[in-house]
Amino acid sequence: MNEAKIRTEEMLLNMGPQHPSTHGVFRVVVRTDGELVLESESHIGYLHRCFEKCAEGNNYLQVVPYTDRMDYLCAMMNNWGYAAAVEKLAGIEVPERAEYIRVIVAELNRVASHLLAFGTYGLDIGAITPFLYAFRDRERILKIFEKLCGQRLNYSYVRVGGVTFDMTDEILADIEAFCDYFDPKIIDEYDNLLSYNGIFISRTANVGVIPAELAISYGVTGPSLRGSGVQRDLRRDAPYGIYDRLEFDVPVGSGEMGQLGDCWDRYMVRMREMRQSIRLVRQAVKDIPEGPFCDKKAYRAVKPKAGEVYKRVEGARGEVGFYIVSDGTNIPYRVKARAPSFCNISILDKLTSISNVMIADLVAIIGSLDIVLGEVDR
Amino acid sequence: MNLCFFTSFFAQAGNGLGEYAGTYSAKWDAGAYEGGLFFAGLLKWLLLATEVPSSVPLAGTLNGVLGSLAPLVSDGSIFPELGALLITIGVVFGFVNVFAIGAVWSERKVSAHMQCRLGPMEVGPHGLLQTVADGLKLLTKEDIIPRLADKPLFALAPAIVFAGVLMRFVPLPFGDKLIASDLDLGLFFVAAVGAVEVLGVIMAGWASNNKWSLFGTIRTATQMVSYEIPIGIAFVTVILCCGSFSLMEIVNQQGGSLAATDGYPYQGWIWHWHLFRNPFMPILAIVYFIASLAECKRAPFDLPEAESELVSGFHTEYTGMRFALFFLAEYAAMYLVAAVAVVIFLGGWWSGIYPLDALGMGPDATIYTKTLGLLIKLGVFLSKAFALVFVQMWIRWTLPRIRLDQMMYVCWKVLLPISLVCFVGSCLWELASGGASVFGFGIVVE
Amino acid sequence: MNIFKVARSIWIGMGITMKYFLNHKKTLCTIQYPKEKDLIPARHRGIHYLETEKCVMCWKCSDICPVDCIYIEGVRGADGPLQGGYRGQKATLSKFTVDYTVCIFCGLCEEPCPPKCIWLGPEFDYHSTDRTMMEKNLLTDEVYTEGDEVFVEWARGENDRLQEEKKKQKEAEKAAKEAEKAAAAAEAEEEGSDAEGESAE
Q: Bridge partners of B250?
């Protein structure tokens, strides 16, 4: 390096699309002064796959596999959001057994997604072992899903009018066994290993504090919003399916280890949500009725009347919304997906400008927002 | 090789053993002993004992070559000390390499067992040859130097890092009198030469012409230099308690050399180790252990190579054998700090059980008990060092990484005050107890 | 964050990993693939299988596929004019391939099939060295080769030719019928005029 060109002020650093900690192809250009980040600029679009355009060329049934691949970590919820929107538009009734099955698979998928968030967050912070433990437990859930619908990640299971396959007693027994294995023992172990670890707390407490009003104004939803103390959960506030019959708590952050709305709060909301999800699964497994598992006629030939609908469900990362415009044919005119990670990640640039963030903290913040680039870029 | 080879080998070996016993046991007792000469003697004995069987082609020539090599190795030849020196370097270097191979394998196995999986199983039984395969792979990789990198510095950096670590092995004992060179300034040498490693790391990061490597370098410079201070204070405390810098002397005192009576030079039990010398020593040992983790750039202090942030830190741009040198240096440093901890706190090669330690010591020991005692002490030392290396691995796979400013906080605001308090407390204790350790003996302060 | 709390939490964490280390035989959760393999559940969605005799060539699976990876060509009718090909009960197929560089294993093609002859099976490791070899010919359960393409080209040509022949035949028959009708009409006119003539007289 030529001596005359060595500068000692700010450095422009590219946390490029390929980086171990950006949870996908996500580019952040940061201007740093040593380790302190002065300004950051996010660039997305590296994973854009034209989901919304593809939806305009396929009929309502064919769009379902595309919705899987938006947020591939909680595919059941994407499927459910889309199916619920089309059902609302076309006025299709879903049998009760299908609703119970939907709740079971969605909550199990939420547990799987939060497990992955927990594991990869540990990896970002530097603890490698919790990742392996999280994947061991996630593997059990994926095995259950494989028995149920044949795939481990992109299920296409929840469709318009119900679900694709019936849930057998053997699978229900497996789910119960998993709940008994997972609920108090394993989550307590995760808490002892990572959540209450002194080093982890010092890395995540008081880091990336998102005040509640800022979160609401940027459209942040899901655990990232609840971590800032805002009581907002679509399963309780705008219930869909049979959530109004089930009992569960909605954990919110409380500034236990640092300030309200820091990374530790968001992370802890996810850990507590896992317990609540298992509680929901247990209730649904106990009360599941007999009956048909889908409305076959509706499922084969969906042709809603002309109109538009917006339907939202509580995904693992926030509010998954589908806005569908129909023109009376069996091919949707327009499908717009509201991805929670897209709004969640938009707060990153604001955070770096309002608080003192170091490079290591940047990684911690991105991890705590728990984004999936598949749904940021669709 | 047929059976003839082995029978003739052992027949010759029987002859050679007598010479080994005669020549070298005298030197051993005289105390004027350098480890290199020990190994040289062993090698000469092996060379004399080996006779290539006549079925091998050119058997006669080979035997002649081996026979002529033997005197070159030890005394009566042109450069006896140089030969011994080269052998010493070879043994230490060989140990470092073999240890690195074993340590990488055991790190992968330890991490795998902690993470509910198996680790390497394919190459060799239970994956024992995995590191050898990895080493071969690294050797055959393309050597890439970035276009705008500073080529001389880039090429020199891994060598300097490895040399800095290897030099610290010089005054380090492996067992009773198994030492490359018993320097009078042993512990001081170990602490001071470690700075060369820091220089190498800084060169590596700067010469890579990569902003992420630069981050790793800056973090390393601050980390390694800062954590040398608690380590230095720990060393100074031990030196003050022992009265000597020499590592062998420090260990011998833990064996009870200062209470020597009735012909048996060492009378130590486990409570004579420096760890139990005064109540401040255990705290100091923990402080030293944590600071040495930071010196080795091991988790939770692995910011310089923070994989999830900087890909690979200061050695991101290194491939092939250059990267292998950094890797080797890291594992060598792991062993080094563990061995130094064993030497200054955990009693070195003394097992802490007096009858076991007394084997081969004293005036009426035969050459066989001497050799057995030596091997036992070597085994004890290595076991303790490997146990500490295991603890280092255990910590790495459990704890998350600490941030730069928190690391500085821990060093300057936690470890340094604690180590200073322990230092002052130890000094006062030594004065008050008259130089005696907690359980009895020591030097008397005049 | 006082130092004793930190040390205690670190100690508890290390206890957990040590517990796993000492019980590693019981807590092992991996298997040595490919020496040991896991059981594949019945509903697993892998490579397609086709029961050729049952296929009626309705193209429903090809239509429902969201990514258009199924290619079907053939002739309906068991005694279709095509020679060779794969004669089923209701159709003679000359091409039925799935392109696995495109297929997303969604399983949508299973349901619309009326005789339920296509399904996704348990095999999942379908590999090749070349992108062009990733099409599986379900009629032979082999990779779709150039020879298959030649056959399909010929089959298309044959089909077109036979369709042309059929069309000509139909036209000829139609022309003959028209001619007959015209002749009959002419006769009827004559008879009518005769009848009129007769009635007039």
A: none
